[in-house]
């Protein structure tokens, strides 16, 4: 079986070194089944999603980058962001589009238990809530814990993972065993709490794509 060729597009402008590190992780997660490229946005794109205007700008830039991709090179295009910025506009292009959150939403809903999320700031939390409602997950969603961390913590993950562990512990005690990590760029390992599941959106999305491919299904449609 040929690997599925995926082009992921960053939602912000990244440095070359960060782009290379992120691309390497995506290739590792993709394994032999998924051939994953990462395209970064131009310098005029926002450096972080800190305001609602940044999310809107990210969607516009992602759509512009996707419009310039070669349909013969890729099977799927996907924003590298749990907010699925620009997926509506991308749906009008020649290359089929997948949204990270849209892809994993069905899996989260199908589990049947309540879940919460963790985001870097309030802007991302608000947009995530809007997306989840749009994907029909309002009933199971128990809100978002906001870390109030700068964009640099996405690269230096120690503080993020420490805060995430504390939140998972508190949510577990409150009866919420599933926590969605609301940043696809932060690598998260297994929860130290045996009854909890920290959902890494990229890892979970790739697992779902593989499952469809191995059952002879297309990842889109």
Automatic annotation (TrEMBL):
One of its GO terms (molecular function) is amino-acid racemase activity. Signal peptide: none annotated. It holds the Pfam family Asp_Glu_race. Gene3D superfamilies: 3.40.50.12500. Coiled coil: none annotated. InterPro entries: Asp/Glu/hydantoin_racemase, Iso_Racemase_Enz_sf. Belongs to the HyuE racemase family. This is Aspartate/glutamate racemase family protein. It comes from Micromonospora profundi. The lineage of its organism: Bacteria, Bacillati, Actinomycetota, Actinomycetes, Micromonosporales.
């Amino acid at each position: 079986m040929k690997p599925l060729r995926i082009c992921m597009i960053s939602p912000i402008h990244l440095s070359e070194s960060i782009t290379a590190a992120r691309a390497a992780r995506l290739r590792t997660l993709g394994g032999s089944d998924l051939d994953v490229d990462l395209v970064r946005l131009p310098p005029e794109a926002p450096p972080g999603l800190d305001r609602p205007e940044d999310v809107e700008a990210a969607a516009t830039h992602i759509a512009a980058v996707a419009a310039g991709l070669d349909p013969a090179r890729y099977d799927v295009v996907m924003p590298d962001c749990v907010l699925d910025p620009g997926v509506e506009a991308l749906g009008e292009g020649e290359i089929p589009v997948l949204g990270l959150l849209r892809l994993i939403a069905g899996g989260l809903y199908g589990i049947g238990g309540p879940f919460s999320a963790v985001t870097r700031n309030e802007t991302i939390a608000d947009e995530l809530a809007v997306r989840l409602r749009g994907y029909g997950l309002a009933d199971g969603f128990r809100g978002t814990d906001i870390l109030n961390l700068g964009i640099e913590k996405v690269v230096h993950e120690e503080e993020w993972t420490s805060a995430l562990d504390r939140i998972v512990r508190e949510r577990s005690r409150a009866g919420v065993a599933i926590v969605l990590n609301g940043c696809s760029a932060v690598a998260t390992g297994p929860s130290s709490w045996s009854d909890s599941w920290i959902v890494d959106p990229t890892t979970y999305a790739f697992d779902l794509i593989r499952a469809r491919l191995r059952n002879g299904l297309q990842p889109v449609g």
